[in-house]
Design goal:
Shape: globular
Helix content: 25-40%
Structural class: alpha/beta
Distance between the termini: 20 Å
CATH class: Alpha Beta
CATH architecture: 3-Layer(aba) Sandwich
Length: about 220
């Protein structure tokens, strides 16, 4: 088991509590977290990723109680286990595509296996774009660069937050296929959080957050 949660409750100010029932993600699993905008999906991802301590409940990451660890230890565990793709791609305009892909590894001072960057860019159709700045890339190329950055270090769990919200049907299918293929190729589990119901038929496991602050089923 990569990730498991047990009766998570998050209370923030005077708002209604947010509940997440027991959840588990095994190696290679692919899970869709579905809910309307503002329903708390990003909050739940933050809890599961060790960024936001829950008011109640436990998060187990590879059988370790994540919130029993220090913040420094959580950062280290998270860096070794997760790959993140955000709705805002966070590509730095002053860096080339290749430098952006390498950024997280460089900042964490984690070595990348020889040839990994070149092989990954080639598989994602970005080899000839490696030295271009983000402003010289199409939206699809920028999205693929963000995916390359997330899978570079072969994470055990790939998490994408609203990766298709601004895309048409054709690009939505292309991005989801790319995420699923990259997860399978690296052996990672995949969790996508979205309000996009077009993704429903692409996942066997769906967790639905129905209302803001309400229960997840």
């Amino acid at each position: 088991m990569i990730l498991a949660s047990n009766s998570i409750v998050v209370r923030r100010g005077e708002s209604r509590p947010l509940y997440l029932p027991d959840l588990s993600i095994s190696p290679g699993a692919q899970l869709l977290l579905l809910g309307p905008s503002g329903s708390g999906k990003t909050t739940l991802l933050s809890v599961l990723a060790g960024l936001l301590p829950p008011t109640e409940g436990d998060v187990l990451l590879e059988q370790q109680n994540l919130y029993a660890q220090s913040s420094v230890a959580r950062d280290r565990i998270r860096g070794k286990t997760f790959g993140f793709i955000f709705q805002t791609l966070h590509l730095l305009p002053s860096l080339t595509l290749a430098q952006n892909v390498m950024l997280a590894a460089d900042m964490a001072k984690v070595g990348v296996e020889p040839g990994r960057l070149e092989d990954l860019l080639a598989k994602l159709g970005l080899a000839d774009k490696a030295n271009r700045k983000p402003t010289a890339l199409s939206q699809g190329e920028q999205q693929r660069a963000a995916i390359a950055r997330a899978v570079l270090l072969r994470p055990k769990l790939l998490i994408a937050d609203e990766p298709t919200s601004a895309l048409d049907d054709a690009n939505t299918n292309a991005v989801v296929t790319l995420l699923q293929d990259q997860a399978r190729e690296t052996g990672a589990a995949l969790m996508i959080a979205t309000h996009d119901a077009r993704l429903l038929d692409r996942f066997d496991t769906v967790v639905t957050l129905k209302t803001k602050g309400g229960p997840v089923s």
